[in-house]
C-alpha cells in the first residue's frame, strides 16, 4: 500500500493534539465563539469609553486651566465678582470669594466681608479653604467683641484640619481675654501634645509662660498697709490754741427760752394821806 506523500514543509502539517481533540474547545473559546457580537461590541464600548474619558479629562484640564488663569488675573472686587459669576460651581469661585472678603475687610466693609465668607461656606462646603473662611469669620466676630459667636466658629474647626492648632490657640486667647486663666491654661497645654509639629508652638509656649507668671503673682500676698495709711493723713503739728472756754462752752448754745415774766398789773394808786384841817382862828377882841 502506497504511503501518502509527506508535506514538503513541516510547518504546513496540521498540528494534531489528541488530548485537545478529545476535550474539544475550552469554555472560554466556546463562550467567545457563541458571543462574538457581545464580546467584541463590549470591547469596542470600552475603547470608546476610555477615549471619551481621555477627551473629557483633557477638556476638564483645559477648563480648569482657564478658570485658574481667570482667577490669577483678578485683583479688584469687580474682577473677582466676574470670576464668581462665570464659574459659580468651580473651586475657583470659592477662592475668589475668600479674596473678595479680604479686600472688603481692608476697605472697612465688615458686613460685606462677612457676607462673602458666609456665601463661601454655604455654596462650597467642601472647598479646600473652608477652614480659612471659618477662622476669618471668628476673627471678625472677635474684633466686634462678639466673643461667644467667635467661640462657636472656632469650635467648628475639626481636629484633623491643618488649622486645628491655631483654632485651639485662639480659643485659649478668648478665655484669657475674659479673665478665665484656668480655662485658658487647660486649652493651651494640650496643643503641644496633640499637635507637636505646628507653626504656632512658640506662641503657645509664650502664653503658658505668661500664665505661669500671672499665677505666681496671684499667690504673692499683698503687703499689709500700716494703719496710718488707712486714714486720712494727719497734718503737721500745728500749735494748738487753747480755747477760751471749755469744749462744751465753745459749742454754740441753743437759744434759751425767755423766762415767763409775771404779767405786770397796774399799780393801785395810794390813797392820799389825810391833810389835817387847820383849826379856825379865834376872833379878834
Please estimate the helix content: 55-70%
Number of helices: 13
Number of strands: 0
Report the major sheet.
Answer: none
Distance between the termini: 263 Å
SS-derived structural category: mainly alpha
SSE order, as H and E? Answer: HHHHHHHHHHHHH
Mean pLDDT: 75
Cα shape: flat
User: DSSP strand (E) fraction?
Assistant: under 5%
Poorly predicted ranges (pLDDT <50, ≥5 residues)?
42-59
Description:
The chain is mostly helical. The protein has a domain at 35-73. Helix content is 60%, strand content 0%. The protein has 13 helices and no strands. It has helices spanning 18-23, 27-34, 36-73, 77-86, 91-106, 110-123, 130-143, 147-155, 164-177, 181-194, 201-219, 227-230, 247-250. Helix 4 packs antiparallel against helix 5, helix 6 packs antiparallel against helix 7 (130-143) and helix 9 packs antiparallel against helix 10. The longest helix is centred in the first third of the chain and has 38 residues, at 36-73. It starts with 17 loop residues before the first helix and ends in a 35-residue tail after the last helix.
